[in-house]
């Protein structure tokens, strides 16, 4: 969430693969093989999408790119070609492109449907697939030392791999541990080609801090099972990172702090509560409300930003709340699966009953949503309350957020964080909202 996962309407693309009906393909005069690019207008932003379609062994294969989000090489699941129409199915995100061939302009005119929204989309043939440059990423050689390290979480029998950067000159140095947001993250917290933790580590190290960033358990070079882990497990991984830095000769053992982004802003106070070994914590878009409250706020903000009216928004929010309540109240997993299956199917039927292609919602899509909803992480997150942990934090705290953050609303969460810290007797607290920044602290127009 980064990153906190949420059942939202953002355009996010998942790995899928694509096949077609060979007979219908032979009967259509339209061009299919090649690179096809279109632009989606989403919440005031223009997002390019590219489908790269090829043929092998009598069937189509395709990959999907989102150049403006840095996503490339995403496999697509299904393509259906009939006469002059093309249907590209993306079931894991309840999305699809359906369009018709225009012989005069040699393109496909159609729509992208996802999460109840229908957006116009024209796919035009292009020769070269665009790439986005990211000038903010630091380039080697760096003016500091870089060590590839591993350390063990003995409690969980997990080995974590990461990168430790050390300023030039004589140590020991104060240190910061970077804790990533939700979802399986590598040490750079890479999302859509952006690498926030690489940028942050570079800046801090140039300014005198040693910085440790590491792959989440089960990600990259770290061992362990990410799927079964909850935030409690990530706290134990961060605790192992602190223990590791204490053994390093170039680290000041009494000046080790935590910098957590999004879910990492949950993990940091959970570890710092009642822990005198933590010198400071920085919460980047950290939580001040319960998980359930946050998820509902996310949905509402995204719907508003997408131009949804109150008449549409109110039943959607009520449905979302009922869904979360069901997950929290039903303890029997088998019964929960069946109840969720029915509730998601009912919602999908209502969502797409006006759609031209009712196949946009498949059983596989519903089962994918169920797996997320019943996961240990999601069930823990829904009921998570940050206030008891924040009230026990005694070290200095800096809590910051972007004004345009739609995933962790700035004002509500920062206010709750500050109040909880001060109620616990911690007066060494600084909060700040950065104007014009989104959840990843990037300059943005809508968030």
Q: Which residues form runs of ≥5 with pLDDT under 50? A: 3-28, 352-360
How many beta-strand runs?
A: 17
> On the 0-100 scale, what is the average pLDDT?
86
Radius of gyration: 24 Å
Order of helices and strands: HEEEEEEEEEEEEHEHEHEHHHHHHEHE
What is the tally of helical segments? 11
Q: What is the terminal separation in angstroms?
A: 13 Å
As laid out across the biggest beta sheet, the strand order is 4-3-2-1-9-8-7-6-5
**How would you describe the shape?**
globular
Structural class: alpha/beta
Specify the biggest β-sheet.
9 strands, antiparallel
Give a verbal description of the structure:
- By secondary structure, this protein is of the alpha/beta class.
- Helix content is 30%, strand content 29%.
- It has 11 helices and 17 strands.
- The chain has helices spanning 22-27, 196-206, 231-246, 264-272, 291-305, 310-329, 333-352, 363-373, 376-383, 387-390, 410-423, and strands at residues 34-42, 45-56, 59-66, 71-75, 78-82, 85-90, 95-102, 107-114, 117-126, 144-153, 158-167, 173-179, 210-214, 251-261, 281-284, 397-402, 429-434.
- The strands form 2 sheets. It has a 9-stranded antiparallel sheet. An 8-stranded mixed sheet has the order 10-11-13-12-14-15-16-17, with helices on both faces.
- Mean pLDDT is 86; it is low at 3-28 and 352-360.
């Amino acid at each position: 969430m980064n990153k906190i996962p949420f059942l939202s309407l953002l355009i996010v693309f998942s790995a899928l693969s694509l096949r077609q009906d060979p007979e219908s393909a032979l009967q259509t005069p339209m061009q299919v093989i090649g690179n096809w690019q279109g632009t989606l207008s989403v919440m005031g932003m223009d997002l390019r999408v590219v489908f790269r379609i090829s043929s092998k062994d009598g069937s189509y294969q395709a990959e999907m790119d989102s150049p403006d989000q840095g996503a490339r090489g995403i496999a697509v699941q299904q393509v259906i070609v009939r006469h002059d129409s093309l249907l590209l199915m993306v079931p894991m995100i309840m999305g699809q492109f359906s369009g018709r061939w225009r012989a005069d302009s040699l393109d496909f005119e159609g729509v992208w449907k996802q999460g109840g929204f229908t957006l116009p989309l024209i796919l035009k043939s292009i020769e070269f697939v665009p790439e986005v440059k990211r000038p903010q990423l630091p380039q080697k050689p760096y003016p500091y030392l870089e060590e590839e390290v591993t350390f063990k979480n003995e409690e969980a029998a997990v080995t974590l791999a990461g990168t430790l950067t050390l300023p030039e000159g004589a140590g020991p140095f104060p240190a910061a541990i970077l804790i990533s947001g939700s979802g399986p993250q590598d040490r750079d917290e890479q999302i859509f080609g952006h690498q926030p933790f690489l940028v942050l580590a570079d800046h801090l190290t140039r300014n005198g801090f040693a910085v440790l960033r590491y792959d989440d358990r089960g990600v990259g070079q770290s061992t362990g099972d990410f799927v079964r882990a909850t935030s409690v497990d990530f706290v134990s991984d961060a605790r192992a990172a602190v223990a590791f830095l204490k053994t390093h000769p170039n680290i000041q053992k009494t000046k080790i702090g935590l910098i957590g982004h999004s879910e990492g802003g949950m993990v940091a106070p959970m570890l710092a509560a009642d822990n005198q070994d933590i010198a400071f914590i920085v919460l980047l878009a950290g939580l001040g409300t319960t998980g359930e409250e946050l998820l509902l706020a996310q949905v509402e903000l995204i719907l508003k930003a997408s131009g949804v009216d109150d008449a549409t928004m109110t039943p959607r929010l009520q449905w979302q709340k009922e869904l979360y309540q069901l997950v929290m109240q039903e303890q029997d997993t088998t019964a929960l699966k069946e109840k969720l299956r029915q509730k998601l199917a009912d919602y999908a039927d209502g969502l797409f009953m006006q759609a031209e292609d009712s196949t946009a919602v498949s059983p596989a899509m519903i089962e994918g949503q169920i797996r997320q909803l019943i996961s240990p992480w999601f069930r823990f997150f829904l009921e998570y309350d940050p206030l008891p942990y924040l009230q026990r934090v005694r070290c200095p705290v800096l809590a910051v957020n972007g004004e345009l953050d739609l995933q962790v609303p700035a004002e509500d969460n920062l206010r709750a964080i500050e109040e909880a810290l001060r109620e616990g007797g911690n007066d060494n607290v600084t909060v700040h909202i950065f104007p014009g920044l989104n959840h990843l602290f990037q300059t943005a127009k809508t968030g």
